[in-house]
Specification:
It comes from Glossina palpalis gambiensis. This is DDE Tnp4 domain-containing protein. By secondary structure, the protein is of the alpha/beta class. The strands form three sheets. Strands 5, 6, 7, 8, 9 and 10 form a six-stranded mixed β-sheet that branches. β2 and β3 form a beta hairpin. The longest helix has 27 residues. It is elongated and about 65 Å long.
Length: about 450
């Protein structure tokens, strides 16, 4: 019995060797007999792979082969995708990403990227399902950013609409680059390079779309915006609402999920006028650029104006926060009035997430790339509000979950209430708003 088993194993090994040697001797191509090009190895890497084999397996093997070829040119380590599974938002299909090892540093200028025309590829319903805006809004936003996508800023031969379409698809659907590569028939390397190039371009032109009002006229308009807001006009001289959100982001540089703080300042139109990103362990409001500017430059906001923030922010003369332990009914009512303003900023975050699903489970190479992605999202968010796209408003009437209020990711940050100027300013505002509200109710 043992001799028969041994002979069987030897026969199997010899048969496999014959098949492999026969394939190599015929110098066939890697994929179903196609001739080998570009001088890469002529060995048949997967001799038993035939055209009727599993499609997903074939795609995986093709990707593995392309990475091996690319690594022979100029390899560099890049981010691996998150091991945590994600969901395609429109299809509801769970996807487990594969880890990537190497990609070349340089973009292949000899490859012509085809025009990507999403407007004609999908009907109106599917277009909104994937891109979370209607086709007219897509065209309007593209016209706003078109001047940034000039030939000098793009790889040779890449149509501007193609890089915009790929980047917007990535941010709204949160599909992995592998899936996008298959869907649009663009190589994985080119797909990832183009999307990240768009993030870089938008981040470099951050102040074009996200501006802190510096002129007297623009500052006056910001205050007037809140004075004309039905729910917030009770706050005189309100200039903006500041909020923050903790994001657990997979950073390839750390090979783990790292908590990151996203801090935003919103105006009455729910546009972002300041954006800041920092690791949670390194975050303090006083060390943020806007925190330092408001402390040192009294002209950053109109005189007597202020921001409203939640309990995570410190109490300042220019930053009003709720009472952490209200001792009277007036203080409790004041906190409830502040909640009206805080809801504005929370809704801004939720609007962003419902349009740009990448926020639900963000991945990046490092913190610098996180900043580029979030600055791009905030810029596109402002443009979406400017053109008055109503997709998210319709979606929020059906989907009641508010990402900004997710209690599973509570912040362990408690701002100080010991600033004397802040205490005085809050008490003055309390008396003014409570009296005005009583007068309004009567």
């Amino acid at each position: 019995m043992e001799e028969n088993a041994l002979l069987t194993n030897i026969t199997t090994i010899i048969t496999k060797d014959i098949l492999i040697d026969e394939a190599n001797s015929q110098r066939k191509g890697i994929w179903h007999g196609n001739p080998i090009k570009n001088g890469y190895s002529t060995a048949l890497k997967y001799p038993l792979l035939e055209s009727n084999d599993d499609e997903d397996l074939e795609f995986f093997l093709k990707q593995q082969f392309s990475f091996e070829c690319a690594s022979k040119i100029e390899p560099t380590i890049v981010s691996v995708t998150n091991a945590n599974s994600k969901f395609k938002k429109c299809g509801g299909i769970e996807e487990n990403p594969r880890k990537r090892k190497f990609v070349p540093k340089s973009f292949n200028a000899n490859v012509r990227i085809k025009d990507l025309d999403l407007l004609n590829e999908f009907d109106n319903m599917k277009f909104e399902c994937f891109l979370h805006m209607n086709k007219m809004s897509f065209l309007k936003i593209f016209q706003f950013v078109r001047n940034l996508l000039n030939p000098t800023s793009l790889p040779f031969g890449v149509p501007p609409q193609t890089i915009f379409s790929l980047a917007l698809w990535k941010l709204t659907t949160d599909e992995h680059f592998e899936e996008m590569s298959r869907r649009f028939q663009v190589s994985l390397l080119e797909c990832e390079s183009l999307v990240k190039q768009f993030w870089h371009i938008m981040s470099e032109n951050y102040e074009t779309y996200i501006r802190w009002p510096n002129s007297q006229l623009s500052q006056k308009l910001e205050v007037q915006g809140f004075q004309q807001h039905n729910r917030l006009k009770i706050f005189p001289q309100l200039f903006g609402v500041v909020t923050m959100k903790r994001l657990d982001i997979f950073l390839a540089s750390e090979d783990s999920e790292i908590p990151v703080i996203l801090q935003l300042v919103c105006n009455a139109d729910q546009k972002v006028i300041d954006c800041f990103v920092e690791l949670e362990q390194d975050y303090t409001f006083e060390d943020t650029p806007i925190g330092q500017i408001l402390t040192m430059n009294e002209n950053s906001m109109p005189k007597e104006s202020y921001l409203i923030g939640n309990q995570c922010f410190p109490l300042k003369s220019y930053l009003i926060r709720p009472f952490s332990a209200p001792c009277s009914q007036r203080e409790q009512k004041f906190n409830r009035l502040l909640d009206l303003a805080l809801e504005l900023a929370q809704d801004s975050l939720d609007i962003m997430a419902k349009r740009f699903n990448a926020l639900y489970a963000l991945e990046a190479r490092d913190l610098q790339e996180v900043r580029k992605i979030l600055e791009t999202i905030c810029s596109l968010h402002n443009l979406s509000i400017a053109i008055e796209d109503d997709y998210v408003d319709r979606k929020r009437q059906v989907v009641t979950f508010n990402w900004a209020n997710d209690t599973k990711k509570l912040l362990n940050i408690q701002g100080s209430e010991q600033n004397p100027q802040g205490i005085q300013r809050r008490n003055e505002l309390l008396e003014q708003t409570i009296n005005d509200s009583l007068h309004h109710d009567s």
